[in-house]
Automatic annotation (TrEMBL):
Signal peptide: none
InterPro entries listed in its UniProt record: HDAC_classIV, HDACs, His_deacetylse_dom, His_deacetylse_dom_sf, Ureohydrolase_dom_sf
GO-annotated molecular function: histone deacetylase activity; hydrolase activity
Annotated keywords: Hydrolase
Domain Histone deacetylase: 18-274
Entry-linked Pfam families: Hist_deacetyl
Family membership noted in the UniProt record: Belongs to the histone deacetylase family.
UniProt name for this protein: Histone deacetylase
GO biological process terms on file: epigenetic regulation of gene expression
Domain of life assignment: Bacteria
Transmembrane segments: none
Amino acid sequence: MYRAYSTSHCILELPEYHPFPKYKYSGVAEALKQDLNIQPAPAITWETLALAHTHDYLQKLRTEGLSRQEAHKVGLPWTQSLLTRALHAAGGTLAATQDALATGLGLNLAGGTHHAYPGRAEGYCLFNDVAVAIAHLRTGGWRGRALVVDLDAHQGNGTAVFFRHDPHVFTLSVHAERNYPLKKEQSDLDVGLSDATGDAEYLEALEPALEQAFVFRPDLVFFNAGVDVLQNDRFGRLGLSLSGLAERDRRVFAKAKQAHVPLVVVMGGGYNRDPRITVTAHAQTYRLALEVLCAC
């Protein structure tokens, strides 16, 4: 049974009215407990974070935290519980990356915090977990090529900045063009979609983007599998159905399988107005990863 890492053991303190879907982390872990060996995500070390993030930024988080203005930009009130959960979410992605290199598939039931920049937090994201994982691999001597397939509804702006001048990382972002962030960064390949884009149009745009991305011939793939592309999402602005989402995921998994390349799946966003849909959609992604890549 494959392992997956979860932050469901982390308590995030938020006002009752806050739209951040903290319920989904425990909900997805519960939904998948018969399919996966679910482990508490370990906390990442500050030394590992320093391989990707700036010293001043990390020192600020350790000593004083975010100011009220900075927390507003993140969209979450600053608390120790926010920091603790972010440390475990990034640690889950690093552990999943190590699993992927060992077994071919790594799964984090959190992560995908693609709005974090080297020196600042933004958009619910304190640490860029994928950037940190790649930096850690390189410190250990890994010299491969990484592909980031970011299919969250929002552009992976922080990730684009981390790897803008890195010839050994290819960043693909397929997102709602008019959505957050207002100012887009430049990925290696950006595909901006119109509001309310549905299944057929989405998949038509996705296929050539994946083809182009896999021409890069990666040695490792990170898949940000955000489900905020679904219709009725609070923040996504796109219009996929659950079946369209499943086909999106199958195509990514099939490309990785065809290329014989290890894959890391991170959760990304999902804010459906019906919480049950958010949990169902995320769980569907991880089950499809097992179905396509493991034939189990």
